[in-house]
Write a structure and sequence with these properties.
By secondary structure, the chain is an alpha/beta fold. Helix 8 crosses helix 10 and helix 8 crosses helix 14. The strands form 6 sheets. The chain has a 5-stranded mixed β-sheet. Strands 13-12-15-16 form a 4-stranded parallel β-sheet, sandwiched between helices. Strands 14-19-18-17 form a 4-stranded mixed β-sheet. It has 3 domains: 94 residues, Ubiquitin-like (UB roll), CATH 3.10.20.740; 73 residues, Alpha-Beta Plaits, CATH 3.30.70.20; 353 residues, Rossmann fold (3-Layer(aba) Sandwich), CATH 3.40.50.1780. The chain is built from 18 helices and 19 strands.
Amino acid sequence: MEMIKCTINGVELEVAKGTTILNAASKIGADIPTLCYLNLEGFDILNEVSSCRICMVEVEGRPNLVTACSEKVTPGMKVKTDSNRAVMARRANLELLLSNHPKECLTCAMNLDCELQALAATMRVREIHYEGERMNYPIDKSSRALQKDPNKCIMCRRCETMCNEVQTVGVLSAIGRGFDAVVAPAFNLDMIDTSCTFCGQCVAVCPTGALVEIEDTANVWRALNNPDKHVIVQVAPAVRVAVGEMFGMEPGSIVTGQLPTALRKLGFDAVYDTDWAADLTIMEEASELVHRIQHGGTLPILTSCCPAWVQFIEHNFPDMLDVPSTCKSPQIMFGAMAKTYYASEKGIDPKDIVVVSIMPCIAKKAEAARPELSEHGFQDVDYVLSTREFGRMMEVVGVDFTNLEESDFDQLMGESTGASVIFGTTGGVIEAAVRTAYEWLTGEELQRVEFEQLRGMEGIRSGTVHIGDMELNIGIAHGLGNARKLLEGVRDGTYNYQAIEIMACPGGCIGGGGQPYHHGNMDIIRKRQQAIYQEDRSKVLRKSHENPMIIKAYEEFLGKPYGPLAHELLHTEYTPKERI
C-alpha cells in the first residue's frame, strides 16, 4: 500500500494513497462536520456526493475551498480544517440549508435526533441571513409505515444511496431542478403507489425529518385510555437489545426483564412476548419444511417473517412466489391468536381487544395493514410502534427505565425459548427452524443446538447442516441488495439450496428501520447481535417445540401443527405486484 505524507492543522502525518481529507483529519482528532457523507460499513458503499458543502476546508495554494469528504489527500498537501475562511463558509452553507427548512423543531419527530438541528447548535447559528421563499410540497402519509416530507429534504441523498445501492429497491431518486429539487419517487408518486418495501433503511439514515415512521403513539394512548377496550402488547426479540440505548445504556444491553415492568406502567392490560409467537412460527415453518422434504414440495423454502422482504419478492420476483413459506410472521401470528385463542380463554369479545406491537421495523406497520390479514372483520394487529416510539412513550410518562425492577411477561402467550430470541438477528430464523426440523426428521435429540455455520455478518453466506443421512444446504442473506443477488442465483441455478433465510435490514431485525439510530455504525449492530446470542444461551429451553405454552396452545386450541385450523389462522398467501 502506497503511503503519502501531508500536513493537517500543522500536524504532519502519513496516510494511504486515496485517503480523503475527512478520514485523514480524523486520525489526528480534527473534527470536520458533515451532513451528506455516510460510510456504510460492511457494504463498501460511500455516500460522498458533496452536496451539503458543510465539510469545507482550506488547502494551501488552492484558490477555492474543497469538500473534505470527497477530496483525496495528495503528497505534501497542507490543510487547515479550522481556518476562519473554512468555518465561515460552513456557517453560510448551513444558513442556506436552514433558510429553506421548516422551523417546526418542537413538533418534529426528529427533534433532538436531527443532525441538521445538532449542527446548527454546535455552530451556534442563531439567525438566518438569507430568508426567502421556501418549498411547499404536500406531506405523503399514504402508507401506514413511512411519512415523507420533501420540505425537510436537504438533498443529502443518503436515502437514495441506501434505497438504490444497498437495498436495490430503486424507488428514491433526485427529481426537480434548482430550488425545487428533492429526493422522491419518480413523478413524485405517493410511496404507497411505488414498489417501496417500507424497510425503513432510508429513515434510518435520513439526517432530518424528511423521512420518518408514521407515528402511532397517539392511537395507542387513546386505546389505553378507553375503558371499553382490552389493550394487550407484544414485544419483538430485537427490541430488548436496543431500546436501552435510548436511555444512555450501552449498545447490546439486555433489558428483557425491564420491558414487562415498563409496559405495565404505561397501562397495558396484558404484556406478552413476541418470542412466544416466534416459537409458534417455527412449529409451522419447520412443519412446512419437513412436509416439503418428505412430499416433494417446492425447494428451497424461504423464511417469511420479514414483511419488507415479502414486499420485495412480490414486486421483484413474482415468478418465485411458490418458494416462500406461507407462514405469517410472528407479529401477525400473535395477533391472530390474540383475537381467537386468547379471546376465548379470557372470555373477551375479539372486537374489544386492541393488539399493539412493539417492533424494530417500520415495515411491520405496513404489514399489519395488509388486507389479507384482516379476514375476520378486524385486523390481526391494530397498532405497531417502533422501538423509538416505545422509548418516547416511556419518556413521556417519566419511566426511569435503567432502574426498573425486572418482572416476567404474562403467561398463556409469554413463555419462550432461546430459538425464538435469535429471530432478532440474521441467520436466526433458519437456525431456529433447523433445531426443530432436525429432531422431527431424525427422531433423535439434538445435543448441540448452536449452528455456527449459519451465523455471521457476511451479506450472503452458505452453510450445510447434516440431518441424518441428508445434507441441508442453506443460504442466508441480509440487506435487500444481497437478497436480489441470492435469488437471481437460485433462479439461474448458481445456488443449490433447500432452505433460505432473507432479512431486509443489515444485521436482520437488530438493524431494523425502527430501532434507535445507529448512523451506519456496524459495531452497534454487532453488539446487539452478541446480546441476542447471549440471551439464547441463558434460556433453559432452546428449541421451539419444547415450549410448554406452545404445546398447550396446540393441545387445547390449534390441533396439530400444519393442520386445518393452523392453516386458517397462521398461514397466508402472496400476490404478484408490479414493480414501480
